[in-house]
From TrEMBL:
Entry GO MF terms: ATP binding; ATP hydrolysis activity; transmembrane transporter activity
Alphabetical UniProt keywords: Antibiotic resistance, ATP-binding, Cell membrane, Membrane, Nucleotide-binding, Transmembrane, Transmembrane helix, Transport
Example of a GO cellular component annotation carried by this entry: membrane protein complex
Species, as recorded: Pollutimonas harenae
Residue span, ABC transporter domain: 5-222
An example Gene Ontology biological process: response to antibiotic
Protein name (record): ABC transporter ATP-binding protein
One of the Pfam families matching this protein, by short name: ABC_tran
Family affiliation: Belongs to the ABC transporter superfamily. Macrolide exporter (TC 3.A.1.122) family.
SMART domains according to UniProt: AAA (SM00382)
Length: 222
């Protein structure tokens, strides 16, 4: 079986006036297809740095990440971007919607970039997350919970094999956060998407099948 993600001795170091800082120190683990993994730890533990490396958005000091069997850092930046476009979805704390596009246009965008039919699929996914009446609204006219549901629809409309979520409820109140999480896990199960979520919320982490806890850049539990 090919793991969704395989991480081998991953290190990320930065050098400043005080010397060498190990942000990630010899991190190794695997994630199986369809699994939900929570990455937890205190602020500064390396969670977001690790997520960026797993997605190939950054390059490590040393070590290896295999994403769907592909050695990310043996690929150039263009090839890594193509791999993400084909197989990966993202949900961010800050939504990352394009302000000059409607909800429908935001969700259509990744399909259009992939050269796939977009409108019907995007509309169907927005209806799936409860935004049937918000298709033509711009982000600034939507609540935070609605914006994050647009972000979810955009991430899942391409039916990704992997979804990376970085503090997906961090900007939401309790009620909207709970609804977004409910939808995210429903879609994760329906589409059999591998879910990797950075969170500081232990209740949220408990919804995942497994927790990887970082402390001082090292894995404490996996």
């Amino acid at each position: 079986m090919i793991h969704s993600i395989e991480v081998k001795q991953l290190c990320q170091r930065v050098v400043d006036s005080s010397g060498v800082l190990d942000i990630l120190d010899n991190v190794s683990f695997t994630v199986d297809p369809g699994e939900a993994l929570a990455i937890t730890g205190s602020s500064g533990s390396g969670k977001s740095t690790l997520l960026g490396l797993l997605a190939g958005l950054d390059v490590p000091s040393s070590g290896q990440v295999l994403l769907l069997g592909n050695d990310l850092f043996a690929l150039d930046e263009e090839a890594r971007a193509a791999l993400r476009a084909a197989h990966v979805g993202f949900v961010f704390q800050s939504f990352q919607l394009l302000p000059n596009l409607t909800a429908l246009e935001n969700v259509m965008l990744p399909l259009e970039l992939a050269g796939k039919p977009a409108r019907d699929a995007a509309q169907g996914m927005l209806e799936r997350v409860g935004l049937k009446d918000r298709l033509h609204h711009y982000p600034k006219t939507l609540s935070g919970g609605e914006q994050q549901r647009v972000s979810l629809a955009r991430a899942f409309v391409v039916q990704p094999k992997l979804l990376f979520a970085d503090e997906p409820t961090g900007s939401l109140d309790t009620r909207n956060g709970a609804r977004v999480i409910e939808l995210m896990f429903e879609l994760h199960r329906e589409l059999d998407t591998t879910l990797i979520m950075v969170t500081h919320d232990q209740q949220l982490a408990a919804l995942c099948q497994r927790e990887l806890h970082l402390s001082g850049g090292r894995v404490q539990a996996a």
